[in-house]
Amino acid sequence: MTLPAAVTVTLKNGTRLLLVEKRELPLIAFSAWLRGGAVTDPAGKEGLAALTAELLQKGAGSRNAEQFADAVDGAGGELEVTPGRDVVTLTGSFLARDSALMVELLSDMLVRPRFDAQELEKTRARRVSELAAAKDGDPRALLGTYFDAFHFPAHPYGQPIGGSEASLPALGREDVLGWAKANLGGDRLILSVVGDFDAKALAAKLESALGGWAPAGQPLAPVPATAPTKGRRVLLVDKPDATQTYFWIGNTGIARTDADRVAVELGNTVLGGRFTSLLNTELRVKTGLTYGARSTLFPGLQAGPLALFSYTQTDSTGRAIDLALDVLSRYRKDGMDDATLASAQAYVLGQFPPKLETGAQLAMKLSELAFYGLDAQDVNGFASAVSGTTREGVRTVLQRVLPAPQDLTFVLIGKASALRDVARKYGPVTEMKISDKRFTPVSAPLR
Q1: Between 2 and 76, where is the model more confident?
Q2: Are residues 277 and 392 in the same domain?
Q3: Which of 68, 190, 311, 380 has a Cα-to-Cα distance from 442 of 20 to 30 A?
Q4: What's the pLDDT score for residue 443?
Q5: Does residue 226 form part of some domain?
Q6: Shared domain check, 112 and 256
Q7: Is the domain of 239 the same as that of 370?
Q8: Is 186 within a domain?
Q9: Cα 393 from Cα 388, distance rounded (Å)
Q10: Cβ atoms 428, 235 nearer than 8 A
Q11: How far is it, in rounded angstroms, from Cα 175 to Cα 167?
Q12: What are phi and psi for residue 141, nearest 5 degrees?
């Protein structure tokens, strides 16, 4: 797999353009990355970046929210805004004949958002309702948020990206306008476009549409480094009506630019990254303790979480966690055999090309590489890096990256009255209620 070369243009305001002509189909796709996501949320205003980002497509330029949506739908286009820890991404796909409309809509969103008060109220209320519904029903989607808040209590990565039931109701239009003024600007933007167009002509259109966009109102502070924590600690989130326990177990993993990221991907594939992984085989296939068990990483500008997660009936919580810990400990110590490595290599290599087939996928990858300061070798050399990884090399990397058994953060969501004794087996326990409006417990053991 070879990443196509991009025409790179830097606009006078600092916006970086990466343009790739791909003429096979009459389509055009973009991926816009704005530096500064949830890490820019002020204390007590968690979710502000995400709320502001969502409002970008709820009315901009001459169009209100309904008219903006109609313009996208009427052209058969797709447009999405996704807030993250370090970045806000805007992605879109249109027919090539509608490239002028695409540029107009994108520039309106970035340069002329309306931030209508009524749309803000509706969006904020929906977000609060969604959080309450997740807590009341299936809380699996919130496990990572509780883990981040507990594991990174004094770091921006601990802030809930989407906010909480405590922070969201207090966010008003002045907060949104203030965040936008401070954080939206041409100097923060990386824009990749792939499709059926002439690069020189499109660059001129984008210069006209975005070149006058002023820089962000304040410098972007660097994200502080994260590091693995020592010792064990447990957060027990009481959901009194729960019949199952949902758990995350982990520590700090790797950054996106980690030199050993290919070996880590192979190692995670074996541990919990596919159906035939060690975790899923033990917890689902062999014992039937769960319907699924996985492990995952969240690499960012700094190292994000590395965690394994699953869910099980309340009365089998201890058995499931003990088995997961046994798998993790043995794997960290022994690594994998040659046959397992070969299988993982084949799996990862087979999964890679489909991730870069479409113009939208290529645009996303170009912006991602530019954001993290990586070059095309991250893609072009991926296959050889995977094939060249040795069993002992992966084992050495995993002993660095995977947490030691004595250094783990646990989050359990379930019926606390039935889980307290189980939870105490794994370390000092901090308890909170799922009805608490924040994701952060009132008190927690010091690190």
Answers
A1: 76
A2: yes
A3: 311
A4: 56
A5: no
A6: no
A7: yes
A8: yes
A9: 10
A10: no
A11: 12
A12: -65, -15
